[in-house]
Amino acid sequence: MRIEIPKDNILGNPIRLAIMLHLLIAGSITFSDLQKALNTTPGNLDSHLRKLERARLVKIRKTIIGLRPRTLIMITEEGYVKTLRYIRSIRETIEEVLLKVNTI
Amino acid sequence: MSLEEIKELHKILLRFDKIVEITSIYKGAINYLFWAVIAPVGALLTAVVYGVLNINIWTHIIVITLWACLIVFCLTTSRELGGMYGLRSIYGREENRVEEYLRKIREYERKELMIWIILFTVYAIVTVTATPYGTQYWSMVVTSGFCIIIASGNLGTYILLKRAIERDRRETLIVALILYLMSPIVGLVSLKAFYLGFMLFAAVVGLSYLCASAYLLSKFFKYVFLEGK
């Protein structure tokens, strides 16, 4: 069976979607914590974060936490709404599929 | 992908939606709890500054700077938590397209800022220039006036939010109602003894935000313990 997932150039990527899902729950997270959680390389994570920042879904800020400089990633309201609606659209697509399967 | 896997994915997405809703409500409650602490602390620091220093233009500037720092600190922390717009988003996500929703929210934020600026300007004009300092009338206006200003600000927020996302955000209404109801009592106590009235004012502001936080926490626990089963 093939599911037609709603298209989104930014959130369509699994790593970027995972970043946004983490931020939906946490609100903000440090670069190192996010890297540990996603088990990815710093360069890869950084390039995905830049794309999300350009799309205004996250804000990246240099800050000092516990006397150490850290990179803090924060979700924006736009990021919050777009990710929520993207997940919702996937869910609705799945519901449609399940409904069709049940009626058949 | 098998049918079982699709069903499992659907369950996970439903659960995730719920988790986002619950954490947003929880963060909103923490945000109000934060205000419940900051507002009376700010009021008491104001009392200390006015008690230690003479009342002159520099004392007013120190107090205004103090409040500006506290408000900026609160708003920055609130944004880092993402609680308040998380609450807005989970309530207001169904109505329209993302761009339309964000346009409404930006308009709401602009209007909300204007309301608070107008209210605080009116308060500053009334207390500093229009009311004779040291009189009983002044004692009453400083405390109960501030209660009414914060209540009106929250009522304005409630009305604007209702227009923007077409949902009741009762926590702001709770803050407004408590402050409106308590402002005459605060005023009367201030007439008897100004410092007592000021302490009561600080307590009432803290209490109103605490009630808003308790309302959100009750919603949070309802989700976790009753609907989460």
In a nutshell, what does this entry contain?
The complex is a heterodimer of chains A (104) and B (229). Chain A is 59% helix and 18% strand.
Protein model, in words:
The complex is a heterodimer of chains A (104) and B (229). In chain A, 59% of the residues lie in helices and 18% in strands. With 104 residues, chain A is an alpha+beta fold. Chain A has one domain: Winged helix-like DNA-binding domain superfamily/Winged helix DNA-binding domain (Arc Repressor Mutant, subunit A, Orthogonal Bundle). Chain A has a 3-stranded antiparallel sheet with strand order 1-3-2. The two termini of chain A are 14 Å apart. The model of chain A has no long low-confidence stretch (mean pLDDT 85). With 229 residues, chain B is mainly α. Chain B has one domain (3-227). Chain B is built from 7 helices and no strands. In chain B, helix 1 (3-52) packs antiparallel against helix 7 (194-227), helix 5 (136-165) packs parallel to helix 7 and helix 6 runs antiparallel to helix 7 (194-227). Chain B is elongated and about 80 Å long. Chain B starts with a helix and ends with a helix. The A-B interface holds A 1, 3, 21, 23-28, 72, 74-75, 77-78, 80-82, 84-85, 87-88, 90-91, 94-95, 97-98, 101 and B 1-3, 6-7, 9-10, 13-14, 16-17, 19-20, 23, 27, 79-83, 85-86, 88-90, 93, 98, 101-102, 105.
Our count of helices of chain B gives 7
Our count of domains of chain A comes out at: 1
Q: Topology as H/E string of chain B?
A: HHHHHHH
Distance between the termini of chain B: 29 Å
What oligomeric state do the depicted chains represent? Answer: heterodimer
Might you state the CATH topology name of chain A?
Answer: Arc Repressor Mutant, subunit A
| Uncertain spans of chain B | none
Query: Which percent band covers the strand fraction of chain B?
Result: under 5%
Largest sheet of chain B: none
- Structural class by secondary-structure content of chain A: alpha+beta
What about the largest sheet of chain A?
A: 3 strands, antiparallel
The overall strand count of chain B is: 0
Shape of chain B: elongated
Helicity range of chain A = 55-70%
Morphology call of chain A:
elongated
Task: Report the portion of residues of chain A in β strands.
Answer: 15-25%
Q: What is the level-2 CATH architecture name of chain A?
A: Orthogonal Bundle
CATH class of chain A: Mainly Alpha
Q: Give me the Rg of chain B, rounded.
A: 21 Å
